[in-house]
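Q: Hi! First time doing this. I have a protein sequence and I read that you can turn it into a structure. Is that right? Here it is:
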Amino acid sequence: MDLNDSASLQEVTRVLQEEVKLAARPHNYLLIDLVTQTIHIKGRGLDLYRIPIVAWSFKTPHAVHGTHRLIARPPIARRTVDPTVSVEQIPLSLADMPAAYTLSFTPALTIEVRPSDEEDIFRRLWAGAKTWWRSLNDWASSFSKGESSDPSPYLLLELSREQAQSLAWSAVDGMPLVIRRATDKK
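A: Yes, that's right. Below is the predicted 3D structure, encoded as structure tokens:
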């Protein structure tokens, strides 16, 4: 961190103030640090788990302030348990978690998580088309309302497949999130 960069210092101070509030509570929270490209799963201010970010892009980052709360965790295809079977059944595992999903937060923030090792060209094209469609919808709605306001913030994160599944496993409804924005890129 450059101590002569006032924007960077303001951002670090903002994040630390939010973290102090969250660390006082017994619940886990997320800190997405775009400067160090790391997602921190934290409890009481301590790192419980770190997830490296392979790549990211952020649309309207200046609109992100304070703490956001996860509306709903990613959907999981749960196995059906047959109570009549006496053989031990396989429990839910990390492999059952989705690797590509969208997280919605309040106040308005959307985070799309994609696996970085996605080799299926059709899935990559579909994900790109969804991003393009979201941008077009945001533009059309602001144009039709006659507003020049910015659309809601949208963060795209590329993680390794296993780390994307770990994040899905860790997410809990209502989980708080703080984002440390990069002041010099994107």
